[in-house]
């Protein structure tokens, strides 16, 4: 398949929960492409289907119909070792609540995906030092999660999502548990990774400030695409893009304060 710069394609994706007449349509035929090296934001009101969409791509849940392809490969056809390789090597997942293991140090949490796929020793240590320096968390590598701030824990979680050099990073409300200062620090780091390493990132967020770091935003309403915004990264400032985001959010949910 000729993907022409597309790393991910979502085609007619639907997801219905429930049965016997009590069903909820979380996704209603969503289709879009994600380009290699893109920083794509997903926004929408609470219950719009944005996290369901992310979890379908992550293979955490199975869509009712439709198809998701990564580099031309239909992920719904994956099973066994092929599915494990997809989850462990092709995608990195950044959770809102960190999801670090309390009995492991930061360094051990970060290198866990490598260990699960047989990468240990000097190779793992080299990758760990590089990603820790990039995210400014070298000083916490020997600390346990209980000894770290929220901002440090989320950057450790980001390092874990990135260390396997996945094709795409999926981030679900990555700043949701952070204050504004730590949110900015994390987004500055992720933006630098996207810009300097051409890393593809797909992020669900409710925060217009966070979304202003993206190069494109898809707005979802009731399981369908509602609107799309693109930022001209060469000429448009994040502040200007923020204003356009807030305008769409007001149209989407009756005011930016009500859009989750």
Structure description:
By secondary structure, this protein is of the alpha/beta class. It has one domain (6-258): P-loop containing nucleotide triphosphate hydrolases (Rossmann fold), CATH 3.40.50. Helices cover 37% and strands 27% of the residues. The strands form two sheets. A six-stranded mixed beta sheet has the order 6-7-8-3-9-10, with helices on both faces. A four-stranded antiparallel beta sheet has the order 2-1-4-5, covered by helices on one side. Helix 3 (106-116) crosses helix 4 and helix 3 (106-116) packs parallel to helix 5 (150-162). The longest helix is centred in the C-terminal third of the chain and has 18 residues, at 180-197. The protein is globular, with a radius of gyration of 18 Å. Residues 255-260 have low confidence and may be disordered.
